[in-house]
Specification:
124 residues; mainly beta; seven-stranded mixed sheet; 0% helix
Length: 124
């Protein structure tokens, strides 16, 4: 059974850091592009793409709002993808989800397998 499980969320003060993990079971993460998305409270427009890492060449992609603050990486031995989040801001508050694409590249990927999400709250 294909499953993605996010962890590492929590409450952090502005300027703080968190590292989210996305652990896979039932399939090998290394064969797929993996994306991180978030949905902020009260946002009607759905989930926002935050970052993505390709498996074809390891290239990484970031939304403009997180570029320079967030870093996506993968540990194939642990079948896990991480999202290191630094210099967190209140506007980063959201439920964060990871998802597997239908191929090796981020561009044009159809993200069909999703985790249950982990809450990140940035507040003083």
């Amino acid at each position: 059974q294909v499953q993605l499980v996010e962890s590492g969320g929590g409450l952090v003060q502005p300027g703080g850091s968190l590292r989210l993990s996305c652990a896979a079971s039932g399939f090998t993460l290394d064969y797929y592009a993996i994306g991180w998305f978030r949905q902020a409270p009260g946002k009607e427009q759905g989930r926002e793409g935050v970052s993505c890492i390709s498996s074809s060449d390891g290239s990484t992609h970031y939304a403009g709002s997180v570029k320079g603050r967030f870093t996506i990486s993968r540990d194939n031995a642990k079948n896990t993808v991480y999202l290191q989040m630094n210099s967190l801001k209140p506007e980063d508050t959201a439920v964060y989800y990871c998802a597997a694409g239908d191929g090796r590249t981020c561009f044009g990927a159809d993200f069909g397998s999703w985790g249950q999400g982990t809450q990140v709250t940035v507040s003083s």
